[in-house]
Amino acid sequence: MTLDEALASLALGTARLDRSGSAPVITNEHGDWCSDFVAACSVVSSDNEEFWLYAEGSAAHHEQIGLFTAQVSSDLRGWVAHPDNPVLRVSDSGFDQGGVFDPSIVRFRDKWLLYFSATSGDAHGYAITLAAATHAPPPTDERVGVAASSDGVHFVKHPVPINDARCPFAMVDGSQIRLFYVRPHEGGYSIYTNTSGDGLHFDPATEVLALAPGRAGSWDAKSVTTPKVYRGASQYWMAYAGDDSSLDDPRGIGLATSQDMRTWRRATDSPVLVPGRVNDFDSYSLQSPIFLSVNGRVAMLYAGSDRSVGEGLHSQVGLAWVVKA
User: Fold this and answer.
1) C-alpha distances in angstroms, 320 versus 5, 88, 167, 207, 295?
2) Residue 276 lies in a domain
């Protein structure tokens, strides 16, 4: 089953996502940089032999970015933390002194570009404020930054942010970079997209609203976030997280399709994965759905938490396989 076929089957309801056991495949016990939580955000393959997974981790209210590797033959288990973790750290001052998180990496013009969210304060400050109040002023410190590397491990940050947003997802689109990201609107997130010829400069005039929250009463009526986009044979697929009541505690994973990556329509009326059972590591929220083709099968890595952001997010990395319904 190809990735395209798997996503189409999930959308039609002829396939489902089957969790690979009740335990996470990456826990928050891989160093003091991720002692509070760890969340998978971006995966690339190295010569079809090894997967490189870039994750955000948090400790003492500072989020930073780490790297994990696994052999393709391991079926996405046996992840090993890189000895240099975290590979992207907060700065001593500036727009990213509070946290760097939500990594998305692409190979562009003979170098690796790592896009990331950055805040000067608490990365979840706005979400925590909204959880305790009906309304709150939009955050003023949420930015997207970018760092470059020749080896995918040692990065040099671009000195200034590239836009005011968070949760970037980057992909190479011909000779340019297409970037997806989210911004808050009416207490929830919406997904936007834009392009750049050099990967650094994005003209605000060419920005497009890609996916807004769903209609009233739908499962994603409040917020849509953590988009990941995949090329299919005849269309593009977006996997995203959504919720009907809060900004950043998404309760389901959904799918959308597009012909041009600008205009998107939902592929399902219901989420393709919802939180696990009581006491499971992913019993409260799900986000960051990463679909991968692995040894003739299709898997999804995701971040699952058993607590809300307000209670102290406790994400770990889960794994589910696409199987026949």
Assistant:
1) 16, 28, 22, 33, 15
2) no
CATH, residue 107:
2.115.10.20
Residue with tokens 């001052």: 93
Helices (H), the chain: 3-12, 125-132, 309-312
Domain membership of residue 12 (yes or no) is no
The answer to whether residue 215 is domain-embedded is yes
Rg over alpha carbons for the chain, rounded to the nearest Å, is: 18
Which tokens is 214 given? 């769903």
Domain that holds residue 224: 30-269
What tens-digit pLDDT sequence spans the chain (325 residues)?
899 999 999 999 999 999 988 899 999 998 899 999 999 999 998 776 899 999 999 998 899 999 999 998 888 989 999 999 999 999 999 999 999 999 999 999 999 999 999 999 888 888 888 777 667 777 889 999 999 999 999 999 999 999 999 999 999 999 999 999 999 988 899 999 999 999 999 999 999 999 999 999 999 999 999 999 999 999 999 999 999 999 999 999 999 999 999 999 999 999 999 999 999 999 999 999 999 999 899 999 999 999 999 899 999 999 999 999 9
What residues form DSSP beta bridges with 108? Answer: 111
305 within a domain of the structure (yes/no) = no
Strands 15-19 and 143-149, bridge-based pairing: unpaired
- Contact, 299 vs 10, CB < 8 A? no
CA distance 313 to 37: 7
Give me 316's structure tokens: 């770990």
Residue given tokens 């593009």 in the structure block: 236
Q: Which of 247, 302, 312 is nearest to 275 (CA)?
A: 302
How many domains in the chain?
1
Reported pTM: 0.96
